[in-house]
Amino acid sequence: MSVIQIMPEFLCNRIAAGEVVQRPASVVKELIENSLDAGATEIIIQINDGGRELIRVIDNGTGMDQDDLLLAFEQHATSKLFHVDDLAEVKTLGFRGEALASIASVSRIEAKTCNNSRAEGFRLFMNGGKVDCLEGVAMKQGTSITVRNLFFNTPARKKFLKSTNAEYRHCVEIVRRFAISRPSVRFHFTADEREVYRLPPEDLSSRLRRIFSPRVMENCIAIHQEEPPLTLVGFMGARDLVRRKSGEQYFYVNGRLVTDRLMNSAVYSAYGASLDKGEFPFFVLFLTLPLKEVDVNVHPAKTEVKFKNEWIIYQFIRQSCEQALKHWLVETDRKETSLTSNFQEAEFQSLKTPALPRLEGEQLTFSDTSKNSEPQAGSKTSFEQPSMLSLDDRIRRFEKSISDEMFYSDEPHSITIERNFWQAHGKYIFTQISSGIVIIDQRAAHTRILYDRALKSLQQISASASQQLLFPISLELSPDDYSLLLEIIPSLEKLGFSMREFGKYTILLEAIPADLHWLEEGKVVMQILDDYKASRRLHNPISEKVANSYAERAAIRRGEIMTPAEMQRLTDELFQTDNPYMSPSGKPIIIQLTLNELKRRFEER
Amino acid sequence: MKFTVSKNDLYQSLQKVSKVTPVRSTLPILSCILMTTKKDSLCLRSTDLEITMETYCNADIIEEGSIAVPGRIILDIAAELPETDLTFFIKDETIEIKTPLGGEYKIAGRSSSEFSAAPLIDDSTTILFSAEKFQRIVDKTIFSVSHNEMRGALNGVLFQFSKNQLRGVATDGHKLVQLTYENFKNNTLERDIIIPVKFLNVSVSNLQKTGDVRFKVGKNHVMLETEESIIYTRIIEERFPDYESVIPIKNPNKVLVDIDDFLSSVKRISIFANKNTHQIALTFSENKVILSAEDIETASTAKEELPIIYEGEPMTIGYNAEYLKDVFRHLDGDKAKIYLNTPLSAGLFYPEEQKEEEHLLILLMPIRL
Ligand SMILES: Nc1ncnc2c1ncn2[C@@H]1O[C@H](COP(=O)(O)OP(=O)(O)OP(=O)(O)O)[C@@H](O)[C@H]1O
Ligand SMILES: [Mg+2]
Question: Measured between alpha carbons, how far is A535 from A539 in angstroms, rounded to an integer?
Answer without folding.
Answer: 9
